[in-house]
Amino acid sequence: MQSKTNQTEFVLGFHAAKEVLEAKQVVYQAYLQKGLTSKRMQNFIEQLNRARIPISEQSKKELDHYAMGMNHQGVILEVEPYVYQSVDFILNKAKEKQEDPFLIILNNIEDPHNLGSILRTADASGVHGVIIPKHRSASVTASVLKTSTGAAYHVPIARVTNLTQTIDDLKKKGVWVFGTDMKGQSLWEMDATLPLAIVIGNEGKGLSRRVKQHLDGMLTIPMRGHVQSLNASVAAALMMYEVYHRRSL
């Protein structure tokens, strides 16, 4: 979904829009569907007025055009483009919290819904940041912002040119980097107290061979059923919550 000016982006839906406001992101305009008078909409309008954000009422047809088929719930915000952070920014965030770093690295995750879901869980489980490659990867779009319900504004995302070089740099800084694979060490046996980064691969192809060559080891999720693979966002969620649980003990 593209903005009208190519210098702004659209955020769709109540949840994502509220997260944008709470994160104090720059909002240029709010587009609201004409005729919606629910209590929810009235409260949202009051929130927009307090933030002094211009409101433009549009027909459902006009909002549908901007949303390009996505569910907008009668709410679209036009915001400044998403700002990616550096890997050092993420590591410093962990240091400021006096916590060992915990990062998620995505390898060949191209589905924006998977990226959005992973960001949502990352925010809930205390992940310090997510690293994605610039190429062959989903980036932060309106669809990702909606799926993440705005979590992208709370979890720093670094977008890197060379994923394997980034992995090597993390290892030099004392971060242990593990991948996910069916033949790895059990997730239940890992030391979650380490400075840690976990690489999640595409659910179809898994991790790339080149990325595997740069990892400290592989982790697997124990399963007892007939299906031996999980959706990338589900696998990532299990990994993240296992680390969160171990570090909370």
UniProtKB/TrEMBL annotation:
InterPro entries registered for this protein in UniProt: Alpha/beta_knot_MTases, Ribosomal_eL30-like_sf, rRNA_MeTrfase_TrmH, SpoU_MeTrfase, SpoU_subst-bd, tRNA_m1G_MTases_N
GO molecular function, one term: RNA methyltransferase activity
Transferase is among the record's keywords: yes
Domain RNA 2-O ribose methyltransferase substrate binding, first and last residues per copy: 10-85
CDD domains: SpoU-like_RlmB
Cellular-component GO terms for this entry: cytosol
Coiled-coil intervals: none
One Pfam family here: SpoU_sub_bind
BP term (GO), one: RNA processing
Keyword list, A-Z: Methyltransferase, Transferase
Protein family according to the UniProt entry: Belongs to the class IV-like SAM-binding methyltransferase superfamily. RNA methyltransferase TrmH family.
Protein name: 23S rRNA (Guanosine(2251)-2'-O)-methyltransferase RlmB
